[in-house]
Amino acid sequence: MIDSGRKVKLNELAAEAGVSLSTVSKVLNGRSDVSARTRTKVEDLLGKHGYQRRPGLPSRDTLIELVFPELETAWAMEIIRGVENVARTNDLSVVLTESGDRHSPSPAWLTGVLRRRPVGVVLVFADLAAEAKATLQSRAIPFVIIDPAGDPASDVPAIGSANWSGGLVATRHLIELGHTRIAAITGRDDMMCSFARLDGYRSAMNTAGIEIDDRFVRFGNFRVDGGRSIARELLTMPDRPTAIFAGSDLQALGVIEAARTLGLRVPVDLSIVGYDDLQLAQWSSPALTTVHQPLTAMAEEAARLVIRMSESTLRTIPRMDLATRLVVRDSTAAPIAG
Amino acid sequence: MIDSGRKVKLNELAAEAGVSLSTVSKVLNGRSDVSARTRTKVEDLLGKHGYQRRPGLPSRDTLIELVFPELETAWAMEIIRGVENVARTNDLSVVLTESGDRHSPSPAWLTGVLRRRPVGVVLVFADLAAEAKATLQSRAIPFVIIDPAGDPASDVPAIGSANWSGGLVATRHLIELGHTRIAAITGRDDMMCSFARLDGYRSAMNTAGIEIDDRFVRFGNFRVDGGRSIARELLTMPDRPTAIFAGSDLQALGVIEAARTLGLRVPVDLSIVGYDDLQLAQWSSPALTTVHQPLTAMAEEAARLVIRMSESTLRTIPRMDLATRLVVRDSTAAPIAG
Question: To the nearest whole number, what is the mean pLDDT of chain B?
Answer without folding.
Answer: 88
